[in-house]
Amino acid sequence: QVLLSKNYEKALEEIDENLIYWPRFIRHKCKQRFTKITQYLIRIRKLTLKRQRKLVPLRRKIERRENRREEKALIAAQLDNAIEKELLERLKQDTYGDIYNFPIHAFDKALQQQDAESESESEAEREEDDDDEDVAKREFVEAEDSELSDFEDMDKLETSSEEEQEEEEEVEKKALHSKSKGKTPLKGPARRKRPHIEIEYEEETEPSTKTKAA
Amino acid sequence: AGEGSGTMPGDGTGSPAPERVLFPPTFSVSEIKNKQRRHFMFLRWKQQQRKEKLALKKKRKKEREALGDKAPPKAVPKTIENQRVYDETTVDPNDEEVAFDEATDEFAPYFNRQTVPKILITTSDRPRGRTVRFCEQLATVIPNSHVYYRRGLALKRIIPQCIARDFTDLIVINEDRKIPNGLVLSHLPDGPTAHFRMSSVRLRKEIKRKGKEPTEHVPEVILNNFTTRLGHSIGRMFAALFPHDPQFIGRQVATFHNQRDYIFFRFHRYIFKSEKKVGIQELGPRFTLKLRSLQKGTFDSKFGEYEWIHKRREMDTSRRKFHL
């Protein structure tokens, strides 16, 4: 074995010298092989300096198991329900402050307290409460953003029903209102126009019939 | 005895009509050597079991109805969540030690409102179209985030530059065969690094909905079901991505829901239809994450100090044991 020099050109010459009586073709092939080897050694050295990508083999069984478990976990999670529950919790705990005008359950609580007292007194108080709350609501409505137009409509409904000053009709109206919302399931901002129109229709007919009855 | 037809094969004892056969008491279906016959007998046995089960159910239901009000309450069905192996590191809400830890860990400046999150999203080398689009959508979901291409830059060199430019978090989305499959989330000024396996990534156009795109409002954050100590720290990591004051006008909510060690990310727009009803509409990308490892310092695969690694042989032994 002959150790070739580190210098590329000198090594080529050494190949020629050592294989002096061999045919030309074989000497050429030797030199080609030598060139190939040096080039790939250079490439190895360059690559080890750069970032190496580590290949981690996927284990088929484990992948399948994890995918299956993920599906089951997704079903068990019931994400939509969980998110809705959480949002309603936050609404109840008043994290949204005054943006959403759902004073209903506060109203109901006040009513329940007053039901314990005599009825006539409570009715008078309720009327006053109505007035106060709706006045406050009306003020708030004007300052509100247009994005919450749905809630504005609800407020308008409440103010119109306040004229009758009967709690039952309010509840009916609210039920109707929620039904009207239920007819076209809200599909987000894109579809807001349709429920909006329906609500206006309801508003026009309802008060007129009521005034006729009165 | 010609047993070519599979419809009425004889049984093990060889008598022609299976109904009138008497098996020795220790006979089981698995002792028949002939596969066809064995299969037939097994199916028959299964049918019998099912019939018995149904009959039992009916009987129980009748008894329940007969008892009426005095019937015992219905048993709660066992679920994996019910049967979960109790984890010692479950966080008690009133735990002082945990509260003290949280006041002094790396997220304290965020939770004390001293820092505003600023996030850098990048990918592994040469991202393909899907990953790029996913990065862009993620950038719209997370406020104050920037996407940068990684042109062969080493993470270890990127990190000091990020810290210099005041980034608080770094997200690297790893890609394999044209789909994103890994996520590295690193809290920058010397914070923990979490490595996740990402699966079932859905881009916005693949989600069935008819909504618009997420607006620029700061979304709310919901973190569900992070019970153990480890889960708690991961939850805080996710919370640290979003600015503190959500703009309720935008009505957007980003949810990280942990179920059985899989973290599902969803981005919704909500609207309160009434006091007891809320409608949600999904916009934005969705993906699921599974935690692979949590490292104490910033990203360093060789010399880092691992707080938690998922070791398959030790941790995957029980179906009812979860770590998050």
From TrEMBL, chain A:
Q: Which UniProt keywords apply?
A: Nucleus
What is the predominant subcellular site recorded for this chain? nucleus
Keyword Nucleus set for record: yes
Superkingdom assignment? Eukaryota
Question: Which stretches does UniProt call biased (Acidic residues)?
Answer: 116-134, 142-153, 160-170
Q: Which GO terms describe its biological process?
A: maturation of 5.8S rRNA; maturation of LSU-rRNA
Ranges of Basic residues composition bias in the record: 176-195
Q: Note one Pfam family from the annotation.
A: Mak16
Q: Where in the cell is it found?
A: Nucleus
Region annotation Disordered: where it falls in the sequence: 110-214
Q: Give an example GO cellular component term for this record.
A: nucleolus
Name of this chain's protein: MAK16 protein
Per the UniProt entry, what species is this protein from, by scientific name?
A: Brachypodius melanocephalos
Phylogenetic placement of the source organism: Eukaryota, Metazoa, Chordata, Craniata, Vertebrata
Gene from which the chain derives: Mak16
TrEMBL record, chain B:
Q: Which controlled-vocabulary keywords does the entry list?
A: Ribosome biogenesis, rRNA processing
Q: Where in the cell is it found?
A: Nucleus, Nucleolus
Question: From what superkingdom does this record's organism come?
Answer: Eukaryota
Domain Brix: start-end pairs:
117-300
Compositionally biased intervals (Gly residues): 1-13
* Primary location recorded for the protein, binned into one broad class: nucleus
Q: List the GO terms this entry assigns under cellular component, sorted alphabetically.
A: nucleolus; preribosome, large subunit precursor
Q: Which Gene3D superfamilies match?
A: Probable brix-domain ribosomal biogenesis protein (3.40.50.10480)
**Region described as Disordered:** 1-22, 49-75
Q: Which GO terms describe its molecular function?
A: rRNA primary transcript binding
**Pfam families associated with the record:** Brix
Biased composition (Basic and acidic residues) is annotated at 63-72
Q: Which PROSITE patterns match?
A: BRIX
Provide a GO biological process annotation.
maturation of LSU-rRNA
Keyword Coiled coil assigned to the entry: answer is no
Q: Does the keyword Methyltransferase apply?
A: no
Q: Main role?
A: May be required for ribosome biogenesis.
- The name of this protein is Ribosome production factor 1
Organism whose genome encodes this protein: Brachypodius melanocephalos
Q: Which gene encodes it?
A: Rpf1
